[in-house]
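pasting for ref
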Amino acid sequence: MNVRNPSFNRHRAVALAVALTACADRDPRFALSMATLPPVAAGSALVYVQPALSRATVVDLTQPTPAVRQVAVGDDPVLVRARVTHDEALVLSRGQRGSLGVAPAPASLTAITAAGTARRWTLGSPFNALAQNGDGHYAIAYFDRNASAGRLLFNPNEIAVIDLDRTAVAGNPVIRTVRSFGGVPNSVVFSPTMTVGGQPRTLAVVLSDAYVTLIDLTHPERSEVTVRLTLPEDTRAIAPAQVVFDTDNATMYLRADQSNDLYVLRLVTVTPESATGNDFRPALNQLAAGMRPADLALFGEPNARKLLVVSPGSRDARVIDTVANTTTVVPLDAVSNRVLLFTGPSPRSATPALRALLYATAGVASAVSFVELTDIESRRSQNVETLQLGRIINQALPLPERGVVMFGHPTSSIGSLSLLDLGRRTAAPIFSEVALENARFDDDRQAIWVAPQTGERLGFIELTNFRPGEVRLDAPITDVIPVSIGTTRRVVALHESPDGWITVVDGTDVTRQNAQSLRGFLLNGLLNEGESQ
């Protein structure tokens, strides 16, 4: 294994830090915490954020010797996320409250590329959560009720809408307060592009207790639309948990905790009342979906949409015809709380068709159900085939494009992993010493990489032939991050070290000889950073 240090001499820096520690007048720069936020991949680079220094360290892996660059971010960074479908990292910072000799600074969002360039948007309020739409065009910063805002007073219903394809100009970001009926945002989901009123739209759906708020991101100047899911006197905690979009019919289906119904919001075209008015309004309807529905999926032609819903409380599946408003109950032999639609063959037919796999996670079942969707209303349970796995299912990693699902089982059982072949409907055990929640896919889904909680061996499964393997590294692995470098596959194993320690593994030729270790990169420019403050 090759071991490389950045240009900054780590050993001299550590020796200097130790020497200064012994001094009575220790330089305050060495009292700064070296802790980082969990790193993310930005294309061909790994991005670490050090909150105490308000900077990001970008490790560019395109070169034989990785280049290390530092990029300034806003004060008090609280999270870093990879930008969806883009080779950038997004850093959300709460800003500076101000103290003796330190001026206040606004919150901000910084986008960082692998080359170390940066763009920044001023947000104002100290948001602590970030959501992105499916193509990384829009982001919404908001307040997570379970995380600290770091301020005495703040408005929990305030949000910032950022167009990430545009620079910071007037009108970007858009800062607004969403309407509240006593709740605060729990999460934000985004629609795919939907045609409403003859125009393509992207909608943000803000989920709050007992109501949802729709924001037209295509026209951010227009007012939001709020839809209550309960009557004012209803005190139930109806918390929206899942949204499924029918883009052809401008309709969305909501599943909520503590509710036996699905909520249907159909967007009806209307004439705007003003320049800030919307040209649509939602028509609300409800569909009975069994006892505490846990998951749903939409299928069928645009003029004959149907919902497949699993309700573990009822131990059945339901097919809801959204046009005729009829429901078909399909009894199941195994409890299910997840729906996976896939297109593929079956043991009885080599012709690919849309089918469904119903299964349960969280250790409540050891069997799965295959459902033939054709003529399901008339054939009902005759279209259901139950497969016993013989092991309780804890987690699942679906790979429908490869025709398999990987299940994680309790480590005490025979084979803590198994591969379910969706076409053959067979399950093969894989012996593993680690849990499935530590697994990561390659970007091109050529392999699954598994990092143990303790130990120095990185495991992998080639998804082309399902061959497992492992490689021994030099230190215990805390996490693994696949990185794309053109057509080259690389996997970065993270090691516990305050000064930064990674091992870059060749994802095609997984050998110890081809691995490269890099350590000490978080110390780069540390003295200069302190001098510039």
